[in-house]
Amino acid sequence: MQLCLVWNHGGYVAPDWFADWLHREAIGVQAMVGQMLNNRPYGQLSIADKDSVDAVEPL
C-alpha cells in the first residue's frame, strides 16, 4: 500500500496480485477439467464441450 506514496497514489499503482493468481488458478482448473472430461486440452474443445466444462460445479 505504500508504493508510490510520494505521488499520493497509494496502492492503486501496484498490480492486483491476488486477482492474477486467481485467474491463473481458474485457467488451470479449466484445463484439467477439460482434459478429464474430453481427453483434449480446453483450447481444442468445441463450443458445446467448453460449455460443459464451464458448467462443472466445484465440490
What is the number of helices? 2
Q: What summary fits the major beta sheet?
A: none
Assign an overall shape: elongated
Rounded average pLDDT: 81
Uncertain residue segments: none
Describe the 3D structure.
With 59 residues, the chain is mainly α. It has a domain of 40 residues. Helix content is 51%, strand content 0%. It contains 2 helices and no strands. Helix 1 packs across helix 2. It is elongated, with a radius of gyration of 18 Å.
Question: Tags for this entry?
Answer:
about 60 residues, about 0% strand, mainly alpha, about 50% helix
Please give a quick description of this structure.
The chain is an all-alpha fold and 59 residues long. It has helices spanning 17-38, 47-54.
